[in-house]
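To make this tangible, this section ends with a sequence with its structure tokens:
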Amino acid sequence: MEHMNIRIFLLLIVVIFTFNTAVFSKTITVCSTCEFHNISAANEVVVDGDEILVKAGVYQEQEINITKSIILRTDGEVIVDGENKGSVFNISADNVVIDGFVIKNVEQSYIKEYAAIHFYKSRNFTVSNNILENVFFGVLIEKSHDGKIFNNQISSFGKEESSSGNGIHIWHSSRIEVHDNVVHNMRDGIYFEFVTKSKIFNNKSYNNLRYGLHFMFSNNDDYYNNTFSHNGAGVAVMFSKFITMTGNTFIDNWGASSYGLLLKEIYDAEIVNNKFQRNTTGITLEGSTRINYLENDFINNGWAVKVTGACYKNDFRHNNFIGNSFDLSYNGQINDNKFDSNYWSNYAGYDLDKDGIGDVPFRPVKLFSYIVNQTPETIVLLRSLFVDIINFSEKVSPVFTPDNLIDPHPMMKARQ
């Protein structure tokens, strides 16, 4: 009987505490005629569970340090001007929401990562529906987990990599969702380092100085349905494993050393149903192994795929290679990768039995591609008769390319 009474007493305490938290959570309004004229003043009196509602207006504020679990939202257009004096919002609490702000003028620094919104050791956070303009870093996340960053617009006026920050920068974190954001004119649009079990989807990242997406030492992540265009060098995914990349578009990433996608030291990945169009190089592989490339489109690139050293057991199947200057570049004489059942617009074979599969295997590596890799200046000969002759000679008697690097079942029609 006594134990039962103790249980009932403890249950009542929990109920009363929950009730009090719900009842006494309050909304603090900020405006020019309110009791609190700025966000910083309201932030000093909040407790866990409170909400700060900011009315339309321009607020010159910076270094707002949030240490309570609160919601910050807006009523009308709210512009927070950091006046190029440090960061704007610094959050070190769980369950914080920042929604609907226009944040501009974050200080640029060569020694400190100032950001419009900076989370440190936080959980269950949300950053949504914000416009970040003329920022150094946009959203900076460090050692945080279970967050959502969505429907934000992030941009700056960066002209040099050394003096620019990243749009969405996430470090040592997990279970983060980044989706439906538009990021441009930053150093890297989106940057992941030591980030696990996270998703990047439905974002547009363009006109960034370095990469649309920069991805390092991050495992078990997915990115899908993103568009990366007109960036310095498209997307770089490096030193990671168990990555899934599906339904993305890599387009118009041009430059002397540019590419749609760089894979460096990547293992056990899935690259499925992506479009690589009008890039200097569609995909560059370096030291990447056990990757499945399925149903991708490589259209009008300089090089569709460049395979460099230490790339093993990669499988290319049911891809479309259409109108590329070079479909495949390969710098070794040993091949441990498979190319099967792809469509090659340069295939000149025949299909006598009308089964949709070419009767003659296709060799995707041309000798001229090998020559251009060794001597880039020879690219001026690309459309000459000389190139046709040397490519034909290598096709008849392979010397510089692996003898087994063929597609034994080239498709006669492109996959729709």
Residues 183 and 205 are 5 Å apart (CA to CA). The two ends are 73 Å apart (CA to CA). The longest strand covers residues 168-179. Helices lie at 2-24, 39-43, 367-374, 385-396.
